Amino acid sequence: NRLVVWLHPSGGSMNNAAEGMSKFFLKRGVALLVLTKKQWMGWAGPEMDALVKKTLPEVGKIPGIDAAHPIFMGFSAGGQAALSQWGDDPTVAGGLVLDAAYPIDMEAYTHGQTKVMALPKNEAIKKVPMFVLVGDQDGGHQIWKKCEDDWRKAGVPITIEYVAGGRHQWLFGKSQIEAFGKWLEEIAAGKLPSDKPAADKPAGDKPAA
């Protein structure tokens, strides 16, 4: 089974949200990894290093689990951790699922500046598809608006929905789950899914509160 790695937001594991999708994943031949022994306040660099260099190789020893190039699925701070890992080394991930996370230059942000993160100078960016949900009432969606066209032109396979009425919140409603399922199925078929360039999708279900 291909592996999805759940990356928690700050302040709590939210493992229940990921585990609630277990049947959805299994139906598509995907295994789910959640962490249970970790602090939940955020993601420090050494924690991500330990996950990638120690935990994933151990998980890969489990019969039937393919831990090479996992799909990192992150909400809020977890999504930022996924983007940061991809920015440092895009060869590690086989895909990114980002809910309420933004391609922001975190170092500049700590100095009060809002800038788009630099694209990795690595051809591997063309082989890591992204499934992105961001609310159109979430200020962070403007970061995606700024970089979406440029990233697509650089070859990044992006599927993005600006969810109508969505704020900084869990955005997987029924229509988003359906789109996510199709995205996973395309990856399983060896494709690199992306949607139509630079176009907002019509609103689907209202996001869950």
Describe the protein's architecture and organization.
The chain has 209 residues and is an alpha/beta fold. It is 33% helix and 18% strand. The chain contains seven helices and six strands. Helix 6 links the parallel strand 5 and strand 6. It is globular and about 45 Å long. It starts with a strand and ends in a 21-residue tail after the last helix. The C terminus is likely disordered.
Rg, nearest Å: 16 Å
Overall residue-averaged pLDDT value: 92
Compute the separation of the termini in Å: 31 Å
Share in β-strands: 15-25%
Number of DSSP E strands: 6
Q: Segments where pLDDT lies below 50 for 5+ residues?
A: 197-209
What structural class is derived from the secondary structure elements? alpha/beta
Secondary-structure element order, as H and E?
Answer: EHHEHEHEHEHEH
Query: Strand order across the biggest sheet?
Result: 2-1-3-4-5-6
Helix content: 25-40%
* Main sheet characteristics: 6 strands, parallel
Name the shape in a single word: globular
Q: How many helices does DSSP assign?
A: 7
